[in-house]
Amino acid sequence: MKNGHPKAKPFLKWAGGKTQLLDVIQTHLPAELMRGEITRYIEPFAGSGAVFFYIAAHYPLSELILLDGNEELILAYRTLKTRCEQVVVALQSLQMDYHQLPAEDQKIFYYNQRRNFNESKANIDFEHEKPGLAAVKRTAQLIFLNRTCYNGLFRVNSRGAFNVPFGSYKNPTICDADNLNAVGEVLQRAKIVWGDFETCRTWVHAQTFVYFDPPYGIKFGSNWQVSTRRRDVKDGRIEDATRQPEQVRAFRDTWQLGIHSYLAYLRDRLVLARELLTETGSLFVQIGDENVHLVRSVLDEVFGSENCCGVVTFQKTTGQSSPLAKTNVLTKVADYLETISKHLAGAEAVDAPVPNQCTGQLD
């Protein structure tokens, strides 16, 4: 369904972004949304907003609510909502200054912007819903850093300072003015909240669709803190470990009891999700093969195993066995979408997705 609104797309690269999974996700959207019976959309973990922008462009919702606990991200959303044209002008200036420099000077320019971004943080009012001119400069810098840093990461050290190294890309697109203007227009319709996901309880009613996309676990014994100086790092490989103290602290495994801490964290959110679902609603959880069986156990505990709808398998990469690479076993090329309903007997029917690189089976 098209609703005449602009087709904006994420303006930041963000870990866990769902742009590549939109074909899968759209096949599982609630039937009430497609029939126009849902009037409010809430996304408690905004991130890059891929699903938010898709929903906003395709369905006639009267209310859109975005939440996230990252103050820099929320400031950027709020600033683009209220001062989009000024952000575009500031970012175009950064892009022009950057592209006219030789490669070595571009690196210096990047680190100067990163230093200024970090030093100016203390002067920013993150709580104000109508950001000022300082937020315009900061939002432009955030987009610039995101487009020119290594791998588009957003990462801060233990002091809250952005510390991703330079990315060395050739002629990156830093300012996509058309998309930023479309983003600003869509955000005019949105309430943007800086806070914990549980805040969304306040706004949920019977005509609400809540899309949860929380963080998910890595390999829990890894204490992941790999180097950002190389592109071919591997978990657990000692030569790839970072020597930067602030990076060690920033990426130290925060799941104190490993997988047990993560599953307890996930269970609390699943209990809330079940409470917020309509009687005909269903939940979808993306997870890798390391923890798919454990997450399924938690889903069964919270929702009841009798309400399981099935598992969708989708290919996320390619690979082949290689004795030389010590991978003479089946390679891991897929993630899984666990599907479970609040009450299976009354759940709305959905078709199994069959886009490219996705095969699935629903019971």
What is the topological layout?
Layout: H1 22-26, H2 31-34, E1 40-43, H3 50-58, E2 63-68, H4 71-99, H5 103-119, H6 133-148, H7 177-187, E3 190-194, E4 208-210, H8 245-250, H9 259-276, E5 282-287, H10 292-303, E6 308-315, E7 334-341, E8 358-362
Parallel strand pairs: 1-2, 1-4, 2-3
Antiparallel strand pairs: 5-7, 6-7, 6-8
Helix pairs in contact: 4-6, 4-7, 5-6, 9-10
Strand content: 5-15%
Give the name of the CATH superfamily of the largest domain: Adenine-specific Methyltransferase, Domain 2
The count of strands amounts to 8
Number of domains: 3
How many individual helices? 10
Head-to-tail CA distance between termini: 27 Å
CA-based gyration radius: 21 Å
Report on this model:
The protein is α/β, with parallel strands linked by helices. The chain folds into three domains: about 1-215, Orthogonal Bundle (Adenine-specific Methyltransferase, domain 2), CATH 1.10.1020; about 225-255, no CATH class; about 280-363, no CATH class. About 35% of the residues lie in helices and about 10% in strands. The chain has ten helices and eight strands. The chain has helices at about 20-25, 30-35, 50-60, 70-100, 105-120, 135-150, 175-185, 245-250, 260-275, 290-305; strands at about 40-45, 65-70, 190-195, 210, 280-285, 310-315, 335-340, 360. The strands form two sheets. Strands 3-2-1-4 form a four-stranded parallel sheet, with helices on one face. Strands 5-7-6-8 form a four-stranded antiparallel sheet, covered by helices on one side. Helix 3 (about 50-60) links the parallel strand 1 and strand 2 (about 65-70). The longest helix has 29 residues, at about 70-100.
